[in-house]
Design brief:
It is a single chain. Helix content is 52%, strand content 15%. By secondary structure, the chain is of the alpha+beta class. It has three domains: 113 residues, Butyryl-Coa Dehydrogenase, subunit A, domain 1, CATH 1.10.540.10; 107 residues, Butyryl-CoA Dehydrogenase, subunit A, domain 2, CATH 2.40.110.10; 148 residues, Butyryl-CoA Dehydrogenase, subunit A, domain 3 (Up-down Bundle), CATH 1.20.140.10. The model has no long low-confidence stretch (mean pLDDT 97). Bound molecules: flavin-adenine dinucleotide (FAD). The site of flavin-adenine dinucleotide (FAD) has 22 residues, from strand 1, strand 3 and helix 11.
Length: 381
């Protein structure tokens, strides 16, 4: 693995780092409290070129790929990890699924607009009664003439309240298990398709998480994404890719926790000297730094596997489970180092802790990642 980042990626990273400190850092607390990210901010992300990193140039993206993507997401999530969730629903899953499985017509229609932010995307797999066991979904798509009627409820859908386009995964053949599941592109405003509730969450609060209700929503034959019966397989491919970027989001959280801890420990006096002089505090920071380096390498290794077309299933799960748990440990240490102040909203470390917990659950829990890794290990053995 080449450890040097390409020059164009370094230049993009530096631009995004500056953007994050000017356009995210000052607002992150307010966005968290209001559970909202302003539309103008999404426009700025679009102008910066963030939404198009994974989109091929023929569909108006930059096609920089996954290594560039994880480098950029780390920067964006260093001050507000919820930005990573917004990106996960929009580009990590929705854009990616269309890229992987869409017809030429669908790609031409949606990808250029998703790459610039003219359209925002969401991706709907989870339901009230099925999350980890996603193939147990109840949402049905029943043939009606040339098209389909969708009925069911999707829960915890990132960007669900405002997305212009949503990839919805539904059962087209309820007797065929995972092979009876298909995906559809559903546009905002489709009759019988609506966001009916928004979650009030522990963390990632500025990222929108909605419930979507479908009551016989009609979509034409052009809405079928990929082959009938391939929807679950394609969804897993999108999730595998999405998890690598979630790993980068978590490296961003952990880095924020460490950088803020260093600043606080140098400043805060106890027993006549800065708490940074205490070995107990130093060792916490050393452990954070060590784990952050390891998590970053795992995330970049998985990203390179995706860019070079290698099988990234295990590296993606390893990167996701490790980075999200590193973020959680780093955030807990950061709160500890901040003492009483760490328990207040005057310092962002309490938010990092809330965000890290959500990252251990979204896009496949730690238990599910371990299950996927073990499954491949046992197959290989
Ligand atoms: C903020 C947020 C945003 C999200 N965004 C989206 C989105 O945009 N689109 C979308 O489709 N989904 C989204 N999700 C859903 C997310 O992917 C699920 O919440 C997650 O996969 C877990 O599913 P669940 O909540 O139903 O938990 P469950 O599946 O009910 O799991 C509950 C617990 O049981 C454990 N468990 C379950 N099965 C096993 C097993 N076989 N072995 C060991 N332990 C097990 C889990 O690890 C977990 O600890 C989002 C979730 C959150 C919190």
């Amino acid at each position: 693995m080449d450890f040097d980042l390409p020059e164009d990626v370094v230049a993009f990273r530096d631009m995004v780092r500056k953007f994050a400190s000017e356009e995210i850092k000052p607002h992150a607390r307010e966005w968290d409290e209001q559970q909202h990210m302003p539309k103008e901010f999404l426009q700025k992300l679009g102008e910066l070129g963030v939404f198009g990193i994974l989109t091929d140039p023929e569909y108006d993206g930059s096609g920089l790929g996954y290594l560039a993507n994880v480098v950029v997401w780390e920067e964006l999530c260093r001050h507000d990890a919820a930005v990573g969730f917004l990106l996960a629903g929009h580009m990590g899953l929705c854009t990616t699924h269309i890229h992987l499985a869409g017809s030429e017509e669908q790609k031409k229609k949606y990808l250029p607009k998703l790459a610039t932010g003219e359209m925002m995307g969401a991706w709907a797999l989870t339901e009230p009664d099925s999350g980890s066991d996603a193939a147990a979904m109840k949402t049905k798509a029943v043939k009606d003439g040339a098209g389909w009627r969708l009925t069911g409820t999707k829960q915890f859908i990132t960007n669900g309240s405002f997305a212009d386009v949503c990839v919805v995964v539904a059962k087209t053949d309820p007797d065929a298990g995972a092979k009876g599941i298909s995906a559809f592109i559903v546009e905002k405003g489709t009759e019988g398709f609506a966001a009916v509730g928004k979650e009030d969450k522990l963390g990632m609060r500025s990222s929108d998480t909605a419930t979507l209700a479908m009551d016989g929503a009609y979509v034409g034959p052009e809405a079928l994404l990929g082959k009938e019966g391939d929807g679950f397989k394609d969804a897993l491919r999108a999730l595998e890719r999405g998890r690598v970027s979630i790993g980068a989001q978590c490296v961003g959280i952990a880095r924020g926790a460490l950088e803020d801890s260093i600043a606080y420990a140098n400043e805060r006096q106890a027993f006549g000297k800065p708490i940074a002089a205490q070995q107990a505090i130093q060792f916490m920071m050393s452990d954070m730094a060590t784990e952050i380096e390891a998590a970053r390498l795992l995330v970049r290794q998985a990203a390179v596997a995706l860019d070079t077309g290698e099988d990234a299933r295990v590296p993606a799960s390893i990167a996701k489970v490790y980075a999200s748990e590193v973020a959680m440990r780093a955030a807990l240490s950061a709160v500890q180092i901040h003492g009483g102040s760490g328990c207040t909203k005057d310092f962002p470390v309490e938010r990092y802790m809330r965000d890290a917990k959500v990252a251990e659950i979204g896009e496949g829990t730690s238990q599910i990642q371990r299950m996927l890794i073990a499954r491949e290990l046992l197959k290989a053995g």
